[in-house]
Amino acid sequence: MHKAGFVNIIGKPNAGKSTLLNKLMGEKLAIVTQKAQTTRHRIFGIYNEEDLQIVFSDTPGVLEPKYNLQEKMMGFVKDSLQDADVFLFLVDVTDNSEPSEFLIEKINKIPVPALILINKIDISKPENWEEKVAFWHSKIPKAEILPISALEGFNTELILPKIKSLLPESPPYYDKEQFTDKPERFFVNENIREKILLNYDKEIPYAVEVVTEQFKDKGKIIFIDALIYVERESQKGILIGHKGEAIKKVGTEARKDLEEFFGKKIHLNIFVKVKKDWRKNDRDLKRFGYN
Ligand SMILES: Nc1nc2c(ncn2[C@@H]2O[C@H](COP(=O)(O)OP(=O)(O)OP(=O)(O)O)[C@@H](O)[C@H]2O)c(=O)[nH]1
Ligand SMILES: [Mg+2]
Question: Is the per-residue pLDDT at 224 higher than 90?
Fold first, then answer.
């Protein structure tokens, strides 16, 4: 008997969704940073065993959209509410802000099993997470609740068997060799964006989009040209930095990661361009893959 299905990871920004996806996949598919709104797309991680295929989906964190890009991001979240066989609802145990009533209502209404994962217990006291377990039990009575640390791998080994027991009998949805739905260029874009999130403050990371214009695999070396779009001329200056030092650091860090990811030498050229207010422009967003 073969089981397969869609297991959709949802939660507020910064809950640790992408960290969990990477942990469950045993590979860094999604970028992770300490900043909220790191993930902008829906990313599938396809986990394969002989008699099992789990299509995990990582999504942007749920928020109140303030501009077009965020609206598109919430569109990905809404998609993931519609095609789930199982929900993994991630909650940050250290987050004391209001819970997302939107998600609570959806999970209660949609007739799909949910596993609530109280994450980051490595940095919280047991009394604290016990309190959260009780709270979430009252909010979503149908869900099973598990305290975990996605980062440290605490209790994460319990998640796969749990999912397997919940998934329906089904043939695989994807080729068993495939581990993601995204093309190589996506991982280049995201890796560069991760370095920008890590190296710059305030608005800069949010005003940036990365597009890989060229990806030429020549056997031993991959030649990559990537374009970084910013919204304003002033941001371009900040991104490049004094004598180009800042952008050079981004390039070096991204190249090292990408060499590991692709298992090859990488030759990376980065260019910076202004595309005025692209985050508010539907045509630009469409071109950048936010459909
Ligand atoms: N201490 C601790 N930190 C964690 C854990 N899981 C994730 N983090 C950290 O939390 C931050 C956010 O993690 P992400 O995986 O990017 O969170 P996300 O939910 O994907 O965030 P968005 O993509 O912005 O919605 C990062 O700094 C992670 O290292 C955990 O179990 N313990
Ligand atoms: Mg994420």
Answer: yes
